């Protein structure tokens, strides 16, 4: 039975341990989450290709599978996580989160949905529109032709909004979106199994550890 309380360990040490692995693969860490779900504890890494111009981070399914394999090996050797857990490595996706002031600048001109902790000057708590240039410490969104500016500190969550274009539909069996690789198992005695592609969008691999 999974513990009901949050497992205690140093996530910063995990981040430091993973840095050389990610650098080897030419990717950077966008986000690192430790969360509990129905399937148990999950360590979720979101990565993107260094210098990628694409919203999705320029990461392929193969990148996620390769990084997942090597990250799993490092975590097993370093023994930083005491719990049984699932490992998930993915790209940011087209609806990626916008977390920092630098990312708001990076995605200027993109459409985003911004949730606020308190109402904007016009009373809205959710702003959906184009991200605009704003003074330091502020976020500006063009909502229905009107510029709305709020403090960055009021932003609870922000995500880019994927808007469909008039491009041809993908061929049967193809999907677009987040690339994800998943592995599961306890944290001890890694014995790798080859990952099995489930689709163009994701792949699942399993690890058996006793």
Structure notes:
The chain is α+β, with helices and mostly antiparallel strands and about 210 residues long. The protein contains three helices and eleven strands, in the order αββαβαββββββββ. Strand 6 and strand 7 form a beta hairpin. Helix 1 packs across helix 2.
Tag the structure with descriptive keywords:
five-stranded antiparallel sheet, disordered C terminus, six-stranded mixed sheet, 18% helix, elongated, 210 residues, 33% strand, alpha+beta, single chain
Low-confidence region ranges: 1-5, 185-210
Radius of gyration (CA) equals: 19 Å
Largest sheet: 6 strands, mixed
Distance N to C terminus: 17 Å
Q: Helical percent range?
A: 10-25%
User: Could you give the order of the helices and strands?
Assistant: HEEHEHEEEEEEEE
Bin the strand percentage: 25-35%
Q: Taking all residues together, what is the mean pLDDT?
A: 80
Q: Reading side by side through the largest sheet, how are the strands ordered?
A: 1-2-3-9-11-10
